[in-house]
Amino acid sequence: MVIVRIMGGLGNQLFQYAAAFSLARRQNLPLSLDLGWYRENPQRSFGLRNFKIKAPECGLLASWLFKVARRYPAVEEVVLRWVLRFGLLRERSFAYDPAFEKNLGAVYLDGYWQSRRYFQQFQRELKADLNRPLMLCPDALELRQDLSRDDSIAVHVRRGDYISNSDYAKLYAPCSANYFHMAVHALAEKVRIRRVYVFSDDAEWARANLRFEHATIFMEHRDGDDPCQDLLLLSACPNLVMSNSTFSWWGGWLGDRETKRIVAPRNWFLDAQKSTHDLYDPGWVILGN
Q: Same domain, yes or no, for 193 and 265?
């Protein structure tokens, strides 16, 4: 069996699930999810429940034992090898880890796994599952049809906790208004734009700072709304301006279209030396942010 620790927001959850799904599928092993992080962080929600994922939650006892193994290195080997009979693969850096290619057998995955290389072998199967959420509200279904037009552009503006959370503020800088204007201009050179849809967790900033030459609709972000709805709307659009956000990334990767026009920010982290080359698709336009 492959068990993966799921943590963070929806974008992170999708990377973790996709990597573990691919590893389990390649080894013909069952997959299970450790959701213990959400019991310790009830302010965050397990968004994958809105997708047709093929994995149950692991038992509470197993989840607790894995937590003990993670927190207390002195007993890690005893708990993993002799009690649970599992190996442990921890993410060692942001870059792709070739150890993932080995036949690891029963293993517990602990990390974020933010590289398409972890799951590219099974990307068609993953897309078939993840492009079909369990439910979309009627308003979202109607809006998704409009967004899917060739002359629509979706812009995702991630700010929120990049500013309000002191830990995140040390890692990320939100993209500038100039970046979003340049990105929309770059897309406008390739497609005749009818309408721009702006998705943001900081609608006030977006309305005050983003002035495009095209009809613009600012999508209101409401606390408690299902992020799955916004993600599936982003993914339907053939032209996307990303933020440095895993939520943005999945908005670009998901969807039924074989090709999309995507603009992404050059600097994902404040530390520009951190390797992020596995995040970017060769066909994306990369701009300074």
A: yes
Q: How many domains does the chain have?
A: 2
Return the CA Rg of the chain. 20
- The helix-helix angle for 246-253 and 10-27 (nearest 10°) equals 60
**Are 10 and 228 spatial neighbours (Cβ–Cβ below 8 Å)?**
yes
215: part of which helix (H) or strand (E)? strand 215-219
| Nearest Cα residue to 219 out of 242, 245, 197 | 197
What are the two backbone dihedrals, phi and then psi, of residue 211, each rounded to the nearest 5 degrees? -125, 95
DSSP string, 19-80: HHHHHHHHHT--EEEE-HHHHH-TTS--GGGGS----PBPPHHHHHHHHHHHH-HHHHHIII
Note if the pTM is more than 0.90: yes
pLDDT at 127 over 70: yes
Asked, for residue 130, whether it belongs to a domain, the answer is no
- Between the alpha carbon of residue 14 and those of residues 43, 115, 189, 248, 273, the distances in Å are 18, 11, 32, 12, 25
